[in-house]
Design brief:
There is one protein chain. It is built from three helices and four strands. The chain has a two-stranded antiparallel sheet. A two-stranded antiparallel ribbon has the order 3-4. A hairpin with a 2-residue loop joins β1 and β2. It is extended, with a radius of gyration of 16 Å. The N and C termini lie far apart (36 Å).
Length: 91
């Protein structure tokens, strides 16, 4: 695994992006539980989480390309509570 040293820490840092790291974890542990929403009683494996993240990302890109200006962390948090994964344009 590629890594490098950071001047402010003795611990090596990964030589990959967060997305690359997540994809590597998905490939290795795809069938394992990754996320649990206790109040909503929902569970995701790494593979399911990866698919949902990609789906949300695709919908966000489509909206941005269509000129949407209401996309950001707060707006996404608001939408996540009622999100259905049947149509990426719902985001």
């Amino acid at each position: 695994m590629l890594s490098y040293s950071c001047a402010v820490s003795g611990a090596p840092l990964l030589g990959e992006t967060i997305g690359e790291n997540f994809e590597r974890i998905v490939a290795r542990f795809g069938d394992r539980e990754a996320l649990v929403d206790l109040p909503g009683e929902r569970r995701w494996t790494y593979a399911e989480l990866n698919a949902d993240v990609a789906y949300i990302g695709e919908g966000s890109w489509r909206r941005l390309l269509a000129g949407a200006t209401d996309i950001g962390p707060e707006r996404l948090r608001e939408r996540m509570a009622s999100l259905t994964f049947d149509d990426p344009t719902n985001i």
